[in-house]
Amino acid sequence: MLYFAYGSNLNILQMKKRCADSIPVARVSLKDYKLVFNHFADIIESKGDIVQGAIYEVSENDIKNLDEYEEYPDLYTKINVTVEDDLGKRYEAFVYVMVKKDIDKPEQPYYQIIVDGYKDWELAVTCLEKALEETKKIL
Questions:
Q1: Cβ atoms 52, 43 nearer than 8 A
Q2: pLDDT at residue 118 above 80?
Q3: For 45-98, how does the pLDDT look when each residue is reduced to its tens digit (9 = 90+)?
Q4: What is the Cα–Cα distance from 37 to 39, expressed in whole angstroms?
């Protein structure tokens, strides 16, 4: 099964520790969504926006570990999405989205894990910085 990561699970080292069977597959984008912070990373529907991330092949055991980490179904729920890689190839994947939508800035150590994950996947950190700045403006 494919899992779309857009937050701290982009960090390949952290993901491998949590999900031993996981296999990094591709850097991808999710159209018509936007990255936000609700203390933790979250995505919301937003026409014309794009969320950068990556997909991993995950096992049933990995999914159990992810469910526990994401506090599913209380903190995060799961939805199915279609993402696209740099060459236009589409993938069906599941993703976690927060149940409660309250804007709040992330703690620095958590944010740094995401920054490191962006570097792991060679994603533009400017998109992450934009989400943080928008969160600070609202607060």
A1: no
A2: yes
A3: 999 999 999 999 999 999 999 999 999 999 999 999 999 999 999 999 999 999
A4: 5
Write down the catalytic residue from 57, 70, 92, 129: 70
User: Can 107 be counted among the known catalytic residues?
Assistant: no
Bridge partners of 97, per DSSP, are 77
Class of domain 2-138: alpha beta
**Is the Cα dihedral 50, 32, 37, 42 positive or negative?**
negative
- Ordered by start, the domain boundaries in the chain are 2-138
Structure tokens at 51: 């969320």
Q: Taking Cα atoms as reference points, which of 97, 17, 15 lies closest to residue 51?
A: 97
The model's pLDDT over 20-29, given as tens digits with 9 standing for 90+, comes to 999 999 999 9
Residue positions in the annotated binding site for substrate? 3-8, 110
Whole-prediction pTM value? Answer: 0.96
> Cα(35)–Cα(46) distance, rounded to whole angstroms?
9
